[in-house]
Amino acid sequence: MKADLLISLRMSLTVSLMVLLFISRVVAQDGWAVNYNSKSVCTLKGSALTMECTYTPPSNHSVQKPFWTKELVTSGSEHPDLLDDPEYRGRVQYLGDEHRDCSLRFKTVRETDQSKYYFTFITNQTGGKYQGAGGVDLSVTDLQVEVPERVIEGDNVTLTCKPICSLTVRPTFTWYRNGSSLSSSNDSLHLQPVSSDNKDRYHCGVLGQNSPEVTLNIRYGPKSISVSISPSGEIVEGSSVTLTCSSDANPPVQNYTWFKGTSSVGKGETYTMKKISSVDSGEYKCRSSNEHGEKFSEALTLNVLYPPKNISVSISPSGEIMEGSSLNLTCSSDGNPPVQNYTWFKGASLVAEGETYTMKKISSVDSGQYKCKCSNEHGEKVSEALTLNVLYPPKNISVSVSPYGEIMEGRSVTLTCSSDANPPVEYNWIKGTSSVGKGETYTMKKISSVDRGEYKCRSSNKHGEKLSEALTLNVLCESVFY
Ligand SMILES: *[C@@H]1O[C@H](CO)[C@@H](O)[C@H](O)[C@H]1NC(C)=O
Ligand SMILES: *[C@@H]1O[C@H](CO)[C@@H](O)[C@H](O)[C@H]1NC(C)=O
Ligand SMILES: *[C@@H]1O[C@H](CO)[C@@H](O)[C@H](O)[C@H]1NC(C)=O
Ligand SMILES: *[C@@H]1O[C@H](CO)[C@@H](O)[C@H](O)[C@H]1NC(C)=O
Ligand SMILES: *[C@@H]1O[C@H](CO)[C@@H](O)[C@H](O)[C@H]1NC(C)=O
Ligand SMILES: *[C@@H]1O[C@H](CO)[C@@H](O)[C@H](O)[C@H]1NC(C)=O
Ligand SMILES: *[C@@H]1O[C@H](CO)[C@@H](O)[C@H](O)[C@H]1NC(C)=O
Ligand SMILES: *[C@@H]1O[C@H](CO)[C@@H](O)[C@H](O)[C@H]1NC(C)=O
Ligand SMILES: *[C@@H]1O[C@H](CO)[C@@H](O)[C@H](O)[C@H]1NC(C)=O
Ligand SMILES: *[C@@H]1O[C@H](CO)[C@@H](O)[C@H](O)[C@H]1NC(C)=O
Hints:
InterPro entries: Ig-like_dom, Ig-like_dom_sf, Ig-like_fold, Ig_sub, Ig_sub2. By secondary structure, this protein is mainly beta.
């Protein structure tokens, strides 16, 4: 009958209320009661726990079986004793007795122990089964170190040691860094300020229970930024070159910007120059940034090597080149490394080495086509031909006569003057002291005795003139032979 009363506890609210009033009267009458020290308990996984409990059986009843169960007393159902449950056997111990104390002890609490527990007892009276209403609500919690969601380098950080439910007893906390205990016994640990180098591991402990270790995920702007180049070594024009920027940052850098000198030339972790050219030489930097800052790398100097190009020959002094003067031919070219080896050719033959080819006392034989060849370790190049035209006054002047031999009156005779000069000469013919003609040749058709005499030719250009030796014409009379 009394069991029925207790069962009705599970009924609707109005009914329960009536029943409660009834119970209190019954309790007063029968004088039975169960008192749980705490209605709810929060404890750490792995810890030991005692649920304190006292009770008074009804008078004239003798308790035959006091036990704890997870089941509410309902009609006809069995209420397994916790001590018989394989899940609990050996881990729980009934500390109470059969008339007053009903405490229960957990040697080690498991996560699965989270539940409601009821103290129940059976007496020697028929139907004498009693259960303490409400039971004890056991929460099992873990310890964990709570770290602020965002930690930025330089922040003052507070770590908190937290059970999920509020522990029934306020315990003493212990903090550990890299496994060694620290002096703080509070549930919070202050770190001020934190550096991004902080790789320390922290955990907290309570009553022999330890939280998992945490390390701080400290956010910071880019640092130790550097630029590398691939391939390493010499960079020759036409090759492909990749610059890579790397920097340490948290969160990792997403934005890289490349600069040549002061102007931005690209974005991205790498910057590739396909077919690099000499104009790509210069200083390169990269800038990396994340939400916490930005940083520039040191400058990396790119020195693009290339064979000689844009080669030209200059002549000094400029203007006309007179025989006997001195002359410098200078070869200039662009190359990296700068051209060291210059060779000079006249036609196909090598005539000199060196950037400047000095010609002293130039003579007519020096006229011709000159080229210079430049080379560095990456190649060679030959200049356009430069034509040297050496100017000089007439020389080696001579007069010849045709036909050769004795000259008969009435015949035709041609005198030819030749001389060597640059530019070409003008010729003048002189008989005795008077000028008789112009041109390279002087022809006398039908020569007569009056044409006898000494002939000279004068050869002249703007650089000078020269008179030939005299040629004596001796005209024979035909009549002399006959
Ligand atoms: C308990 O038992 C005694 C004697 O055996 C009796 O006098 C008393 O009335 C009983 N009390 C109740 C509540 O039954
Ligand atoms: C129950 O036990 C009490 C005390 O030992 C005794 O007085 C009572 O007679 C018993 N009742 C029954 C029904 O055995
Ligand atoms: C961190 O704490 C130190 C010492 O208490 C204080 O001087 C400093 O201003 C704090 N810094 C920040 C960012 O709160
Ligand atoms: C310990 O923690 C409590 C609450 O978290 C705080 O009120 C108290 O000031 C702390 N004590 C020390 C010494 O930090
Ligand atoms: C803790 O250990 C980390 C490596 O796990 C180390 O970098 C750090 O310096 C240590 N801190 C201390 C205070 O020993
Ligand atoms: C990265 O670049 C994008 C586009 O240029 C810009 O919108 C973003 O704010 C940049 N982020 C950072 C962290 O600088
Ligand atoms: C060649 O050199 C001259 C003189 O140094 C310069 O003016 C010209 O721009 C250069 N040409 C090329 C193609 O580099
Ligand atoms: C040729 O070069 C040499 C050496 O540089 C110099 O001394 C000389 O005066 C130059 N001659 C001419 C004609 O420019
Ligand atoms: C330059 O000339 C020197 C000596 O003539 C020679 O040993 C060297 O190999 C040449 N260098 C180049 C790049 O032609
Ligand atoms: C003069 O010219 C002739 C014929 O052209 C030549 O044989 C001779 O070698 C020249 N002499 C000089 C000194 O140039």
